[in-house]
Every structure is written in C-alpha cells, then in structure tokens.
Design a protein that fits this description.
The chain is of the alpha+beta class. Helices cover about 40% and strands about 15% of the residues. A five-stranded mixed sheet has the order 8-7-1-4-9, covered by helices on one side. A five-stranded antiparallel sheet has the order 3-2-5-6-10, with no helix packed on it. The protein has a two-stranded antiparallel ribbon with strand order 11-12. α9 runs parallel beside α11, α10 packs parallel to α13 and α11 packs parallel to α14. Component of the U5 snRNP complex that is required for spliceosome assembly and for pre-mRNA splicing.
C-alpha cells in the first residue's frame, strides 16, 4: 500500500482502541489475529460495517483462556475505545468512553498511529441479521457458561431422604455417573440464536411419490425457511451461512460448525430451487469459494473432512446443477468452482459415492 492510500484510509476509516491489554493476549478482528505486544493500543483503518472482534487472555506460561468475541457495527470514521480489566480478564464493563474523553482520541489520532495495527481485510454483514442471531448478552463464547439449578437446604435434604441408600457407591455406568452430577443448564442469554430449519420435509397431502421426491430434493424445506423464517430475504440466508462460519472458525463455537453444515447441505440438495433462485446460488458459490480458502489446511483433516462432508455435499450440488435447467451463468460458475477445487485440493467430484454404488448380490 502506498503512502497516499494509507493516509486516505487512516482519515476515512474506523478505529478500535484497546487499552491496558496484557502482553501475549490474543486479539483479533474477523480473519485476522495477533498476539499483543508491549506497545499495542488497538487497530486502525477498519472498514465501516459489521466485524467480529475477539480475544483470549493468556497466562505467563503462554496458555490461553477460552475465546470471547462479539459483533460490532462500526460507523463511518468511528473510534471505539475499550479497556482491559485485569481482575476480570475481560473488557471492563464499567468504562464507557464518550463525550470529551472520546474527542481526545479523535484529536490525537496522529500521535496514536504508531501504536495501532493496520486492518488488512474487508468484510461486511447485515447488522439486523447479527442482532437477530447473536446471544442476548452480545458475546460469542467458545465455552458455554453453565449454572447449577437453584436449591436450598430443605430441597437438598428432601432429595437425599428420597435416596434408598444414603451411602456413596461407585457408579457402574456412564448413565449412573451422570445422574450423580449436579444439574446444570446453560446461562440464559448466552445462546446463539441460530435459525431452526423446518422439520417437515414435504407438504400436507403429498402422495408417496411426492414424499419420495422431497426426501431427495430439499427445495420444499428451503422455500419454507425463506418464507416463514427469513421473510423471503435470500441475502439473510447467505448471511447466516457466513455468520455460522465465523462463529465456528474464528469464535471456536462447534454449534456454529453444525449450523453451517446444515445450511450448506440444504442449499446443495435443493435441486428444483436452482431454476427459481439463480442469484441466491450464484452468491452462494461465491461465499463458499472464499470460505474454503479461509479454512486452514489442517482444519479439513480435523473437522470438515469427517465423513467427507464437504466433498460429498458439493458433489451432490455439482451433479444437481449439471442435470438441472439452471441458468447458464450459474452452470458456468459452478463448473469453474469445481475445476478450481479439483486443481487446488485434488478433490474428486466425479467418482460415485459408496452409498450410491451398485451392490452385487450373490444369489447362489
């Protein structure tokens, strides 16, 4: 980046000022993360729009705590200031920089420049969608917070009196051991509110032939999801594909991976929808293209390649596109995407999956 461009971005873009962060703390925005150095004060030149900010405390031995993150919608030229609380090992919830104090940061941007890292990547997402999906407390936690069910002396005594044998015995099974653990539930307000996919796969009154077709083609589920859950806004469906991807890849939330798989499989298996939702699938291919390139290579081995999910799902998608009357622009884009994946990752999309291969039955 030349000096003139850097100066222009410095003046027009946003800042996240993060004060008193201990050296070694992991800090990141979107796909970029750093280990904080002694002069770190935040990040500059952030594009306006939605971004995922995250951090993990680190002890002297270099061990990091579970990751915590949140989505923030940066306004044009906005400066956001947060301060680290060493006791909580988290952002201080009681410090809110506004008014004259915030103006001082605006006035001293030039002096802060050398303490701010440069934002290297552009990203954008719908603010209303994030508000709908993220937990009520606004934090994406890689490890769920649990609370034990409330009890008092009387209730514990009653539960103990109902036990036929008050003496402790070693559990003989996992189920028995689990029954002896305290009753725990996830802290209210910390759930990610992923959109639930419709459970009914076919319309009321369907014939057996129609039920069979709907079991192989997910278009009915896709249309129901768009109409009843997303107000027919196709962009929000792709937005949730991106949201869940960020949650599992960067936020380290496994539920995000599960939702991402469900949505990717839904889109890849909706054959009839290919002719009626051309732009949705054109954009979907673009989203997948960038997501595949953001996943670390070892991540494919550890998670994505379980049961060959991505290769078998994309194989079904490419086959559906080839056999459909989809728009030629979509067919061309899918063909290029398939060729790119085959060349880059050596994935085979032409061999027949084992579950569809013919079975030889010995009748002797």
């Amino acid at each position: 980046m030349d000096q003139d461009t850097a100066q222009s971005l410095f003046k027009r873009r946003c800042y996240f000022v993060f004060l008193d962060v201990p050296v070694g703390t992991e800090f990141g925005i979107d796909y970029n993360s750093w280990n904080v150095g002694p002069e770190f004060r935040g990040v500059k030149m952030i594009p306006a729009g939605l971004h995922f900010v995250y951090y993990s405390a680190c002890n002297k031995e270099g061990q990091t705590a579970p990751r915590t993150g949140f989505f923030y919608n940066f306004r044009k030229k906005e400066i956001v200031v947060r301060k680290w609380n060493r006791l909580l090992e988290d952002i201080d919830p009681d410090i809110d920089v506004r008014g004259d104090m915030l103006q001082k940061f605006h006035d001293n941007k030039e002096e802060m420049d050398r303490y701010l890292g440069a934002y290297p990547y552009e990203n954008c997402m719908s603010e209303s969608l994030v508000e709908k999906l993220q937990p009520e407390n606004g934090k994406i936690l890689s490890v769920s917070e649990f609370i034990s069910e409330s009890s008092d002396t009387a209730s514990r005594k009653k539960a103990n009196d109902n036990q036929p044998d008050k003496s402790f015995t070693e559990p003989t099974s996992a189920r028995e051991a689990e029954s002896q653990l305290p009753q725990m539930k996830v802290q209210p307000g910390t759930f990610i509110r992923f959109t639930e996919l419709p459970k009914k796969r076919y319309p009321e009154g369907s014939t057996p032939a129609e039920i069979t077709k709907c079991s192989m083609d997910s278009t009915y589920i896709l249309e129901t999801l768009l109409k009843e859950n997303l107000n027919s806004i196709e962009k929000d469906l792709l937005g949730e594909v991106q949201f869940s991807f960020i949650c599992f890849l960067i936020g380290q939330v496994f539920d995000g991976f599960d939702q991402w798989k469900k949505l990717v499989h839904l889109l890849c298996s909706s054959e009839s929808a290919l002719t009626n939702h051309t732009q949705l699938f054109l954009d979907f291919v673009g989203v997948l293209y960038f997501q595949v390139h953001e996943i670390p290579e070892d991540f494919f081995v550890d998670i994505v390649s379980q049961s060959n999910f991505l290769t078998t799902t994309l194989q079904e998608f490419f086959s559906n596109v080839d056999c459909s009357s989809a728009d030629q622009s979509l067919k061309r884009k899918c063909r290029k995407f398939k060729e790119h994946l085959t060349s880059k990752f050596r994935w085979d999309f032409d061999s027949e999956p084992d579950e569809y291969a013919p079975v030889v039955v010995d009748t002797n």
